[in-house]
Write a structure and sequence with these properties.
The chain is an alpha+beta fold. The protein has a domain at 10-100: SH3 type barrels (Roll). The protein is built from 3 helices and 6 strands. Strands 1, 2, 3, 4, 5 and 6 form a 6-stranded mixed β-sheet that branches.
Length: 133
């Protein structure tokens, strides 16, 4: 959660949040509860005390029993969260408007380029035994 304030009335604040990109399918592990999936508005920083999210649902896509509407905006205190799992970005997430697949400003680890395979010597004796079998 950044230091920016939401606009004065709730309707315009909700509209501003609806236009903001989200980090989809973060797994939030709550204390003494099953994990839930949510769309985060941003990655929590070390000085945050709560997580702002929307589209709260169980891993199988159902509405958790402790909420009324899944499309509401939720402010979850970090004191009630064990940890947050951020799945790696997939190219599919980036195609959707208003959706960011990975965390902003976070670099993905560079995948090592595979070394070209060395030319293997053909074992003529081995090939002869295969042909004879």
């Amino acid at each position: 959660m950044t230091d920016q304030a939401l606009p004065g009335d709730a309707a315009s604040g909700r509209a501003a949040l609806d236009r903001q990109p989200v980090l989809r399918n973060a797994v939030i592990h709550l204390n003494n509860e099953q994990p839930v999936l949510a769309d985060l508005f941003e990655v929590p920083s070390p000085r945050d005390v709560a997580v702002l999210c929307t589209n709260l649902r169980t891993p199988d896509g159902k509405r958790p029993v402790f909420i009324d509407q899944t499309d509401s905006i939720f402010l979850l205190p970090l004191a009630h969260i064990r940890f947050i799992e951020m799945p790696a970005s997939t190219g599919q997430d980036l195609d959707e408007p208003g959706v960011v697949g990975g965390a902003p400003g976070r670099r993905r680890p560079a995948h090592p380029t595979p070394e070209p395979e060395a030319d293997l010597e053909i074992d003529e004796d081995f090939l002869r035994r295969i042909r004879d079998a």
